[in-house]
Amino acid sequence: MINLEVKLPDTPGSLIELIKPISKNGGNIYGILHFHDRKINNLIPVNVTFELNEEIQEVSMQKIKNELKEKNIQIENIDYEIEKKIITIILTGHVFDTDVMDTIKRLASKNINVLELQAKFTELEEVSNVKLKIEFPEDMNKKELNNELRKICEEKKLFLITS
After folding, report:
1. 67 touches 21 (CB < 8 A)
2. Cα–Cα distance for residue pair 43/97, rounded to 1 Å
3. Are residues 41 and 55 in the same domain?
4. I want to staple 74 with a disulfide (CB 3.0 to 4.6 A). Which of 7, 52, 133, 137 is the partner?
5. How far apart are CA 53 and CA 111, in angstroms?
6. Structural domain of 90
7. What do you get for the CA distance between the two ends of the chain, in Å?
8. Phi and psi, residue 66, nearest 5°
9. Which helix (H) or strand (E) holds 2?
10. Across residues 46-63, what is the average pLDDT?
């Protein structure tokens, strides 16, 4: 995913001129944000989020940049986001008694982020079930993720259920 930030003149047709080179070079546009409230000197900040075929991404992006430069469209920033994968897991055991925040921080240190946590609170001594929706980088395979989760679960004597 690519996030392109530009400044466009506040004139009819400027947005089309921004989109044409992206489309022409194989870009699949996911979203466009127009920030009219941040207009300065008749220039409006615009963010376009799009995807390019990875195999030709570098060449396509260079062509897009060249075409935008030819059209005098000012590029402010280009961000290449790493795609993330999402999975839901369930931890069973003394999840809270073994410090659930420590578990979340350890996952975060491996670039694994907890997006949601659902639990029915019980007494600390009782077994609990905690459902976690987690996000992990595209470049991390499921086996690496499961190894990291299993390591934490073994140490804390928790039972892990994954999809």
Report:
1. yes
2. 55
3. yes
4. 7
5. 25
6. 84-162
7. 26
8. -60, -45
9. strand 2-9
10. 90
